[in-house]
Amino acid sequence: MDLRPSISKEGNDPKDAATRLGDLIDKIVRYCPDAVILVAIPLASCDTEKPKMPIYRALIPGLVRQRRKDGDHVIAVDFSTFDLGELRDCLHPTNEGYSIMGDYWYDFIKQVPKGWIKEPVGDDPKREENGVGRRVLPDKMSILGIVLCWGVYHMCWV
To answer: Which helix (H) or strand (E) element contains residue 64?
Structure first.
């Protein structure tokens, strides 16, 4: 949602961004149907270069709700009570802010409905020497362990 093209390389239209997020969720579900996906609603920001962020943030619950209605195990994670005073530069948390954010994630993970996290679907993943699971999807996109990106938190056996 940043106004600077050097940062928002795919544009800064909130509806387009929400569509891309929905497509990403759908792709995760397609490749890992037993996935539990926690979709983070991005923090508010004091950055004046992100005036469209509130519109994007408002679109996320609806796209999550639709996928949940379709039977996907998707939850919107709302950080609206996160104190913006814990952001050191209007975007990145302070060290204490990261600790607080970890507490938020822990609370959200504990709210995953019982029965959603099951034995993985498919073959057991091949493990690398260091024990970290790795799976390469047909489009060559790699997912390592638990994927955390601003917008999607993906828990899946990979």
So the answer is: helix 53-69
**In the chain, where are the structural domains located?**
14-155
Domain 14-155, architecture per CATH: 3-Layer(aba) Sandwich (3.40)
Is residue 52 within 8 Å of residue 92, measured between CB atoms?
A: no
The closest of 28, 40, 65 to 157, measured between CA atoms, is 28
Is 93:86 a contact under the CB 8 Å cutoff? yes
Q: What is the pLDDT of residue 39?
A: 94
pLDDT at 126: 67
The dihedrals phi and psi of 77, each to the nearest 5 degrees, come to: -110, 115
- Consecutive H or E run containing 135: strand 134-136
- Out of 48-57, 100-109, 112-121, 139-148, the most confident range is 100-109
Confidence band for 32, pLDDT divided at 50, 70 and 90 = confident
Q: Which residue(s) pair with 153 in the sheet?
A: 38, 148
The candidate with the shortest Cα–Cα distance to 73, out of 115, 105, 102, 108, is 115
The pTM (predicted TM-score) of the whole model is 0.71
Closest alpha carbon to 14 in 5, 3, 25, 1: 1
Residue 157 burial (CB count, 10 A): 17
